[in-house]
């Protein structure tokens, strides 16, 4: 997928949403007009008044997108129940009546975007599998895959750099597309193994699928429900990327024969998410190839979506703070024992011996949350928080990640960016000092909370750090245009701006 293709995808997302907005506005405009005609009471003045009101609404939608401003969908929704107390956040996370899958199923239309997934189904089997494979076995898998993941990341980033435009001694690259493709390829290796990672068509489908999900989310918010299947088919080319991914994954699972009970004399499976999940559930009555492929598709979207955007914002924050880059470069080089060669690193070094890098990423996420709300849940039944608010049926309950991560009691001077805020030797007097990026806390609810916290956070952390280690130790980098837009917003979500460029050149070329 070339950069021009990505731009076309972004245009199609905007076009899809604008057309959907136009459709729903036109629907209500015609409905009102029809009602007025039935009562035999309509004047040309009122008709044209409605028409120009409709045009003004469309212009407002377009102008919001063009200006990268906050945009509220036209479709109304019930006000969310937002909790802040740690006891209520724990209840929010663990209550069986409140479903994470259902709320995101409504937002992203899982019935259409995940091959008829029943997002209202509550199965503990799924959560246990995800937790065991990603949370419990994750660090072990990442240790085994470390060298491969590092090399895949280096190779993928170098490809993006070669495609950049020459600007003086530097290459100019579009940051969002570059880190998205780099992280996607690394995640592909961790998820699916070496063979599928070499399948270019499969890798492109993974990228397209994530873009399809975001585009569908935007369109679903502004179209009547009965149009969702048609809108999805139109945006996704009849789900072409989704079906290609499922086809390849099913073929891989078929070769593994999930119905057979595991013979403990067999060698351990390849340390990837796909193979470990398949090995874990072999012989289980609930799981089959289709269900497992569907589950992996859902995990893929979550895993591929968040890390690259946080990485984008981290690199932008680094561009704004060259002094911090120098500190991080010094920390990384002091950790490398083999003449500055990053390939001499291992999992423990990257994850446990680079506290400044860990702190910088965590502070970036705190200041630039991808969603100002966190731990979103849909009430499958009416729910009452203990000594707290009630959540009506089908309503959303959540906490405010922005408020929690800007609490002055936990974060002194919360609106300032403090690169060393979380470092163990930080001078900041805070209960969050020494907290690692992957730690779960009600004051950092990005990963969720409690026993159902995001099991893929270890994978996300390592992917981001590997790219940053390579970038910081090998290159000098800066904004191409300091005044260029860097973010845009949709509802409570913050997205990287697709056209933001940075200048990159090898450190040895810097005098």
**Biggest sheet descriptor:** 4 strands, mixed
Low-confidence stretches: 1-14, 16-42, 65-77
Overall shape: it is: globular
Radius of gyration: 24 Å
Q: Give, in spatial order, the strands making up the sheet with the most strands.
A: 1-8-5-2
Task: Count every beta strand, where a strand is a DSSP E run of 2 or more residues.
Answer: 12
Helix proportion range: 55-70%
Mean pLDDT, to the nearest integer, reads 82
Structural class by SSE content: alpha+beta
Strand fraction: 5-15%
Number of helices: 19
Distance between the termini: 35 Å
Please specify the SSE layout and strand pairing:
Blueprint: H1 3-38, H2 44-66, E1 81-83, H3 86-94, E2 98-99, H4 100-108, H5 110-113, H6 124-136, H7 138-163, E3 165-167, E4 170-174, H8 175-192, H9 194-197, H10 200-220, H11 228-236, H12 240-256, H13 273-280, H14 289-319, H15 322-335, H16 347-352, H17 355-367, E5 373-379, E6 383-384, E7 390-391, E8 396-400, H18 401-404, H19 457-474, E9 475-479, E10 487-490, E11 493-496, E12 501-506
Parallel strand pairs: 1-8
Antiparallel strand pairs: 2-5, 3-4, 4-12, 5-8, 6-7, 9-12, 10-11
Helix pairs in contact: 1-2, 1-10, 6-13, 7-8, 7-19, 8-14, 8-19, 10-11, 10-12, 10-14, 12-14, 14-17, 14-19
